[in-house]
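REQUEST ID: PR-0412
SUBMITTED BY: lab tech R.K.
PRIORITY: routine
TASK: structure prediction, single protein chain
INPUT:
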Amino acid sequence: MIRAADAILLMPLTVFLPPLLAWHSDTPSPAMEGLPLADGFDFPVGRPDGHGYYDAQPFTENDHLGEDWNGNSGGNSDLGDPVYSVANGTVTFADDLGGGWGNVVRVAHAYEDRGKVRYVESFYAHLDEIAVYEGDVVRRGSLVGTIGDAHGHYIAHLHFEMRDRLGLPHGPGYSTQTAGWISPKDFIRAHRPSVHQARAERSDPERLARP
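STATUS: complete
OUTPUT:
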């Protein structure tokens, strides 16, 4: 098995190239026109609250740019478990990057904050299967893939990132430079659906994924 910290050595050069287009969360871009507005954010596994999973390597620990979500039973017990879009959005990337990344899905989200529309991106890596295509419009709770092991490089887990600067390279996964990356748990906890929405979804779980 290859250690997660060694993943940077397995990644193709393209993950480090500067983006052609990158913009901050509060800067409008023509590429973001028509994004569905998020009605809140949920966790990417154990929807909606991450039940049954834990973050084995939090944001910035060991210079980690994301979070590593594992099933509570450990090992590969979570291999093939569903991974969900954290919010309404549009898929901007869905493909196999190989190396230490494996299958990756990226989703752009628009959300309202104090009367202003801002943008973030969610990033799901090491997937076993990809369930969406680039350009797909997804809702909070839509299936985007399943937990994988980056083609056998790691014990199964979801590497999950959130970014407040869209258009960044795929990235190395580990870095002392965190500009553009944000704590996923902190952001999600600060932007949960309203109490009314959560109550309605608990009474009708399939409502989350319906168009």
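NOTES: Helices lie at 184-190, 195-203.
REVIEWED BY: pending
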